[in-house]
């Protein structure tokens, strides 16, 4: 086997949306910095972009081991309960739409609330969102909700909040490849291969990573800083660092250092026989599903899926291709009845395509894990977003780059609430609006 030894200032483990964003911002903040972005599939050949229009009878899913961002539905919202999440999404919107000038469909979000505590929480969240400049409107009472969304069955709905602007969806594949292109133009290097080892001193200092090129080659990449941007496979990377450190070094269990598991999510696309007006935003229902239009405002095509926070949790899924087969019984037996109950026009629909993918589920508190990984000296991470990562990729990537270049978060100091250390300390950073 051919072995090559190389030296970089920073090694980013995972070259999807998050890894490419970190590389982009490192080049912006310090043009002299040398960066290696290690990605098993740097061309993103096995992304769901090719699957989105696949016929339902032949849907298959292929994926990159360290990249799942292109499998996302690519939605962006200010409908959060934490100021830090709201501000990250606000920054990302401006970056996507105004800096990169990528297409953004401002279709909006709408959250429904049932009678009882849910309505109070919705009002509290809306007040915070509005105080931060989010264009969110609150509708109190089922009659008010019905006037705003005349196609909606408001049974069991007490209130709703809707984003009039600043929310919608974008192409996550285009965002990822655009940031990658800029990063490469800045001189950052994408290394194709799989990380199979991490050289760690007993003190916790990362010395470098070992990369299997898949073609009989092996690269030993020395680095001053290593960053885990491996999405749902982040724990595997930390496990490699622990193994490289040796069994004698006292360290917390892996589940405390990196409580991230791959969690399966499914997306279904269907055609509706009836035209729905006004257009359907990304609607988050109290029964545990989301649905939004797919295409132009008066399209009869929609996509939908279940919500992690509302349905019974599945067992943690391992990263095996067979686990990503679409469960069509789930759509027909569970999802469709709820869709048809909330939007009667969805009684007459035809399923046209579907896909499944993993996201980086933070088992601790379903929020981002950012910054230094405890007990290591130069080992950072940006992972564990639990479903809202792609919309926060620009802001989180900038934050990690600032931490590397300046030693602190400068643009958004409040992101320290997402430090991984909170897991060790037993503190949770809870977000009420998990979709």
Give a structural overview.
It contains 10 helices and 18 strands. Helix 1 (17-29) runs parallel beside helix 5 (172-185) and helix 1 (17-29) packs parallel to helix 9. Mean pLDDT is 89; it is low at 46-70 and 308-313. It is α/β, with parallel strands linked by helices and 435 residues long.
Uncertain regions spanning at least 5 consecutive residues: 46-70, 308-313
How many extended strands? 18
Q: Span between N and C termini?
A: 46 Å
Oligomeric composition of the shown chains: single chain
Q: What would the average pLDDT be, to the nearest integer?
A: 89
Largest pleated sheet? 8 strands, mixed
Helicity, in percent? 25-40%
Shape: elongated
Order of helices and strands: EHEEHEHEHEEHEEEEHHEEEEHEEEHH
Q: Report Rg.
A: 22 Å
Number of helices: 10
Report the portion of residues in β strands: 25-35%
Structural class: alpha/beta
